[in-house]
Amino acid sequence: MTVTEKLRMRRSVATLVMAAVIAFLSESTFLGTAAVLAGLVLGGIQGASACGLALLVTAIKAGGTVDFFELHWEIFLASLAAGLISKVPSETELKATAKMKARHGIKIFTAALAGYLVLILSVVFRNSSLNVHALEEILDSITLEAIEFISSIVLSIALRPVIARLLYPLNLASQELDEILGGK
Question: Whole-prediction pTM value?
Fold first, then answer.
């Protein structure tokens, strides 16, 4: 098995594990947080793929109704937004200088903010008649959302170097590139 095949297998397993976590949390209030965390930790494509797989599994389990997709399209977009900004993890994040770690922290904060904004805006658009009850619902959930937001940033900063070591190891990067370009 080539290095490329091994890394592809690891990345697929990571996506499936995250999809299982998201599917498990599909009936909880932490679904959005899991989706944003998937994007922050795995990157845009893998994070959104994990959300898509989780949505598919959950919809099939629920009898294949389209309603589930209509209600939860935002988790896919939230994960994609967070992941496209945070990008795939890199081992260099762990060994970075203080200035680079600050930049990385700002990038993760911005990515998480983008993911949560997608989730919040989806609530606003879903309740297009924004009555007092809908606004109260949003305000009641802000404290929990803030805790989840901060937790997702902390977890992401802690997990990204570990995930990078497993999925995108620097010592194998040139070998993987050679295999891809050389067609081995």
Answer: 0.86
